[in-house]
Each structure stands twice: as structure tokens, then as C-alpha cells.
Amino acid sequence: MAFGGWAVTLVRLELIKQAIIAPRSRLAKTCILLSALAFGTALRLAIDAGANGVPFLTFYPVILLAAIFLGGGYAALAAVLAVLCVRLALPDAPWIAATLPARLVMFALYSLTILIIIVTGDVMRRLVLENEAYIRQQDTFNSELQHRTKNALQIMRALIARGPRGEDPARYFQTLAGRLDSLAKANELLRFGALESAGIGPLVDAAIAPFGRDHFVVSGPDCQVSRPAATPLMMALHELCTNAHKYGALSADGGTVTIAWQVARSGASLEIEWTERGGPPVDLPTHRGLGWRLLAPNGGLRRVDLDWQREGLVCRMVADAV
After folding, report:
1. For the chain: N or C, fewer Cβ within 10 A?
2. pLDDT grade, residue 271 (50/70/90)?
3. CB atoms near residue 218 (< 10 Å)
4. How many CB atoms lie within 10 A of CB 43?
5. Can you tell me whether residue 277 is helix, strand or coil?
6. 3-state SS, one letter per residue, for 16-81
7. H-helix segments, 162-308
């Protein structure tokens, strides 16, 4: 019996919560409020038509429920309309014939009582809404955490499985460690799924940090990269840095890499340009390894264009912005 009683109570509480958080249009809220006021007026007329005083007795529950289920604004409107309903429906009520000082005192007490009722009901409503929002945020975070964990494991598996055949193991593991480090930094910038976006500035800084900042010229406005674009962009930048360090501008003492970005006219994406200068003459690569997969559109990284100019590689990328 005790368990059954608790179960019934929980069901009732859940129904009340759903009634509070249910979205309603302004028209629907107005109709509910007017219907409740009509019921309160009819009930007051049925009791004694206000002959025994306490004219607002049946309106207090209406105002409280309005504050809980509709909000404080509608509860305040209900309080004002309740005065009008009493004045029109109970013209012979004793309080109307009272002296002006008495009526002022009763109105002041009514206003104080209504204020307490509205504040109490509105606080209850806000607590329920905030708790529901927190629960949904946690569910979203947990789902995103599982999704990003799965994606991270898949990327790690691809990085390990597609290692170059016949490459020196020490060199291979050094390259692998760098790529895994970039993956970890991308997740770190996004707090592993807790944030919706990452700053492009910190992301670029994290990508180029292992290769020395002296050879880089970085410029662009302060803006955010979307969550789906952050990891692919980080991996692409790391791959560009690695290639430049091995074969391009970063392999020469006087070589420089310019990374510049700007927000597209639509505002929905970032245009990023990587330009190498001062390195050895560039030839079009004949071998396509895992690096080509990292320098390809993926998720929020919408476009990657590689221009193998003789003076140095130019890479243009488009990533989703927030």
C-alpha cells in the first residue's frame, strides 16, 4: 500500500510538472485565465452573492493557480480582473457601501495578500522550469559526451590503423602522438562536448604551438568555430603544420606561414587561409596517405582547397561559425 501510494503521488507530481512546463500560446493562456475567473465569479455568486463579506474568497485560488501555471504576469492580470468581476457581479456587497477609509484599508490588505500569493506561485513555477531546463541540459550533455567519445575513438582507430607501411616506427609514433595531441586539444577547447563552440584564436594557437610561433603570422577577428567544425579544423591545421615542418616553409630558416581568417558575408561560416612562403620549391605530392584524409571536408569543416603553388602551399578552408 505504501509503495502504491508513493507511485500515485509521483504520477500526480509528474502530471502537475507537465502542466506547468507545457508550452501555451498567449491566446490559450488568456482563454484559460478568463475561464478560471468566470468560474470564480459563478462560485462566489452561488455561495452567498457576497452577502457575508470576503468578496474575493473564490478568486485567491484562481490567482495562485494562474501564477503557477501561467506566470506572474497573468496572475497580476487575474488580480485586477477579479476586482472588476466583484464590482460588476456583486454590486450590493457590503464592502461597496463601506466608507472610503474602510475600503482603502480592505484594498491595501487585498493587494498585500495578492502580492504574496503571486510571488509564491511564480517562485514555484520558476523552480519547476529551471529544474526541467537543468535536466534537459544534463541529458543533452550526456548524449553529446557519448557522441564525442565515440567519434574520438573512431578517429584514434583510424590514425593508428592507417599508419604508413615501412615507415620508421619511432617516426611513425612521433607523428601519431602529435595527431592524438591535436585531437586531445580540440576536445579540451570544447570541454569535451560541454561547449557549443571554440574560439578560432585559441584553436589556431593550440595547433601551431608545438611547431614554434616565431615562423607564424596569425591574424583575424575574434569569433567562434562551431562544435562540429572544431576537431576537423584542429586536425587539418596540425597536418598542415606537420607537412610544412617536413617539406614546406617550416623546414627552412627563413620560411613563414601566414594564417588569416575572416567571417563570411553570411555570418554562418569562417574563411581560413593558410599560406606558406620562404620554403623550398613545392612539387605536387605523388603519395596520398592519411594526411589527405585529414585535409578533406569533414563535419563542420565544409571545404578544403589545396593550391600547390611553386612558392609554397596555399590552403583555403571554410568552417561553420557560431
Report:
1. N
2. very high
3. 15
4. 14
5. strand
6. HHHHHHCCCCHHHHHHHHHHHHHHHHHHHHHHCCCCCCCCCHHHHHHHHHHHHHCCHHHHHHHHHH
7. 169-189, 200-208, 227-246, 290-294
Sign of CA dihedral 321, 181, 153, 175: positive
CA–CA separation, 176 and 159 (whole Å): 7
Domain ranges (residues) in the chain: 2-136, 174-320
- What is the arithmetic mean of pLDDT over 193-214? 79
According to the CATH classification, is domain 174-320 in 3.30.565.10?
yes
Give residue 133's pLDDT. 83
- Judged against a pLDDT cut of 90, whether residue 100 lies above it is answered with no
> What tens digit of pLDDT does each residue of 7-23 get?
666 667 778 888 888 88
Predicted local distance difference test score (pLDDT) of residue 192: 45
CA distance 115 to 121: 10
Strand partners, 305: 316
Distance of CA 269 to the CA centre of its chain: 18
**Count of CB atoms within 10 A of residue 268's CB?**
13
> What are the angstrom distances between the C-alpha of 98 and each of 56, 92, 109, 110?
16, 11, 15, 15
Helix (H, G, I), strand (E, B) or coil at 133: helix
Indicate the range of 112-121, 164-173, 310-319 predicted with least confidence.
Answer: 164-173
Mean pLDDT of all residues belonging to the chain:
80
Q: At what angle do helices 60-69 and 26-47 cross, to 10 degrees?
A: 160
H helices of 272-313, in order, are: 290-294
Using the structure block, give the residue that is written with the C-alpha cell 575574434. 222
Percent of the chain with pLDDT over 90: 30
